Amino acid sequence: MAADVIKSPEDLETLFNESFYESPTSIAAPKVQVKEGSTINPVRGMPLFKKTRIKVTNYLREKNYKETMEQIEKEKKLQELDEAEEIKELNKELNIKVEEPESTQKDKENKKDEIETDDNNKTLELEGGVKEHVRANDVILDADNIDYDDKTMDITATGSPVLVFPPQNVTIKADKMVYNKASNILKAYGKVEVIRDGNRVFGDYMQINMNEEDAFMDNTKTKASMLTVTAKKSEMKEDKVILYDGKMASEDSYILNFHTRMIGGNNFNTMLIDDEDRSTLSGETGQTAVHIKAKDIFVNAKRDHDVITLKKASINYGDFHLLDWPSITIHTNKKHQFFDANYPELGSRGRLGMFAGPGFVFDTPLQGGSTLKAIPILNNKSGIGFGGMLKYRSATNYTDLAYGSSADVFVLKGKQYFDDRLYMQYGANSYMDEWWFGSRMPKYTAELIYHDRAVIPSTIGKNLDLRFRHRFGIGYMQNNDVNRYGERIPAADIGTLRTRYMAEIDQSLYRYRNKDNLFDFNLSLVMQGSAALYGTGDTQFVGRIGPRVHTQYKYWMQDVGFFASAYQDGTPMQMYDMYRYGHANVYIREALRVNKFLTLAWSGSLTMTGDSPNGEMFQENSFIIALGPDDFKVNFGYDWIRRQTYFSFIIAMDTKGSSIDFDKMEIKNPDRLARSNEEDVELKVFDYGNGSTAKAPAKKMMYAEVIDIEDPDKEQI
Fold it and tell me: Superfamily assignment of 140-209 in CATH?
């Protein structure tokens, strides 16, 4: 269910803080939730810094492991010699004579000295063997019966024949195989199976021309990822595979979650819903599958990208015809961690206004496969204007750059991940993530951030957890040159370095939940603090504390919090990052599920002590209308403070039963399809206890954990 995508207030708060008030501008790679029995494993990108860190760690651990094993073996040998000496002394005391060859005695006399000086006299050893060279046209045939016809020059193999091509790592199985020496053509009949690198292709008949190095197969069938591919006929040439009159279908359940970030931080997606009151798009339409009919499909497996083009595509949801698309080209990296396509785009940005325009996608060789999308746009801020937008996407980076003549302003927003918790955010005239300070707009900024969190379960009682989060950032910022809040503060064209540490402790005090009666109550105490030092020597300190309450009664849900704050705000960039919530602040988030297809939500932040910079009570004020069933939500919103509209959607689609029919599908460089040139790395674990019975001088076991990186671009559609 799309209603289950955000499973906690913390999840929603993360989405809220990281992308407040920026409309979507592209499709993000779908999250895949695996149902029981499924085999697909979603893969996330690994930043270069993290990969380097793991390689260095592995090198040091392996080096330490080898040194430890050598020390263990050395101690073991010395112990054996000591035991032999003890036995010799005991035999001497008991007057037992044990005669040894002279050579053995000399060896024992020198062995201890050799062990002790082993570290300085290591011998270089060569490992491995000589492999037999196999020529490109060599094959290996194994069968119960092999017959040869002198007249036709046919070699016929029956009885479970298996043909192996070692250079290509290809194995062919069939009920019967016939090879003609004169024409150099191989034919396979019956249940034909082709195995290559663990992938299996099945058919009824196959013919291979050894001279031309091509082949074709009848009634082809194979399984690739979540899809089963069938075709009446297939041709295999040196660098391409062509399928005719075929179909790709999903026979298993895979839930694809497409979701964009939402305005206002409303957490109505955490609402308890009775199963009888849930709604699904499939339940209302009677259908669960998307069907696409395409005349031609072209797949180009490049070095770093997979590019898929559909020609004359007709898209249907069940019995409902959605649209016809003359041509669409989809670009993705090898691990399919993101994708983009040449569809038109529309939306709004803070300083740019509304925009719309066609999109053109290009592959780039950067970051192991990435895409750049160019969009000529019309924008409307103070009248109709012209401009353009560039969008860069990779597995660990997203960057949007735009200009519109109506606003006469450049807009930049991006994020680059270096490690699981380390990233850089940069932007110009865009709302940036400032955590619980709210999203703020600098003129331009570049900031390196470390953000981490931890949970201590059941600290003061069962299910009463303590959550800790902290964030450290250092970067350069330029003060905003536009007063968007009506604040009575002077403009200051200043840019400076800022170093800031922020932390939050959230202790749950009381929790009660009754799912049957749709009642939920959670009371917690929250403490937050921030300390900033600027390059000008100015400082900013904020500390606040207060209760937070989450309640739900039937289908009315609310979050209410109060903060008592103490602060010394000496920031030189007041328009950008001054503290705007006063000494007493209340935030309220309300959500009401009117029926299965309509949810209303409102979010606000109020300064109760009248000491906000603009003298107004409301510092945040926005609403959302969510339309549609629970697995297909479309959200519309408006922010009165920033005067900006917002659009987002959430889709949770089960791919089971969905299909793509095609007249012809051509796959260029099939060997490179979905195969990444990037090296996969993981932290190694060395077991010190299995190498020897001797006690290791270091730890018995080293443990490590690799945590996946969150998708850096969740706000897109």
Answer: Lipopolysaccharide (LPS) transport protein A like domain (2.60.450.10)
